């Protein structure tokens, strides 16, 4: 026994240190720029207003929403790489007509992983669906999921500044270190200047059912993307086999923007990530950075949930399903109960609780910044 403990101990310590994680500092949290009045104003421009229209696949609203996303990233965040994943399909109400389902994939990764080619970086994957339900007529889906899409746009703009700074600094440090060991050829072996960790935003299409929710009448975009990603093969030497494996965590935002949400921790396997986000919410509240009135419970109220309490009940069918079936770790940020306005004509801009929308933007952004930092200090 004694012989075994000696070699095992360092291994154990190593695995503990690589999983160690540094909470983001208070100064950093305070420095997160508050969402501007113009970002989430429901009438005038900004991130959200252009999305408060019906966005049914195969209609002009779908195209308008797509253009809004593409214009925003091209104009404000040209470093984020936009790509499409398209499919078509019939629905129970399309009379045999093929409808287009068009997912947007928007990526930002370290310059050194980009140089090495696809399959090099892992991605914190932040997801919302942008389509809206075909009924009731004129349905907007402000919480479902216009607001989550706008929150992801705010997040991208906010984290970009920090990522650009961090990656430039890491590259400088790596260049300086490589000059120092000039002449030592073995050390010149390709070494990444920092962790191979990026962010990708998935704006998914065709989440809603056209008639009633079944396995085939729902999740049109997500099912197509997950299947395609699993069937894509990267070159043999790539660190990741396919885009599905590059998902380090699949964070799905849905039905956010009503007052007083309570979001359970759905999966034991990602409870650690839920706890991180809940801790950030707690700190932001304590620092009086959040605007929403404190209800009886915080948004993320199950940080203390014990292993035995994960029963498998309360699972909510949503865009994560085809990804989870293929092994992705999922953090599902969706309230239970659903907002009162769910799937009614009242799920519109006027019924959003702006303080909650802005608070979610801050919480998810803080989580993302901390995630990127975690990976930096974790190696
Ligand atoms: Zn819905």
Sheet having the most strands: 6 strands, mixed
Q: Uncertain runs with pLDDT below 50, 5 residues or more?
A: 1-19
Question: Which overall shape is indicated by the principal axes computed on the Cα atoms?
Answer: globular
Strand order of the largest sheet: 1-2-4-3-5-6
- Number of domain modules: 1
Number of strands: 6
Give the mean pLDDT.
90
CATH topology: Aminopeptidase
CATH superfamily: Zn peptidases
Q: How would you name the oligomeric state of the polypeptide chains in this document?
A: single chain
* Series of H and E elements: HHHHEEHEHEHEHHEH
Structural class: alpha/beta
DSSP helix count? Answer: 10
Strand percent estimate: 5-15%
How far is the N terminus from the C terminus?
Answer: 31 Å
CATH architecture: 3-Layer(aba) Sandwich
Question: In percent, how helical is the residue content?
Answer: 25-40%
Ligand catalogue: zinc ion
Compute the gyration radius: what is it?
22 Å
CATH hierarchy class name: Alpha Beta
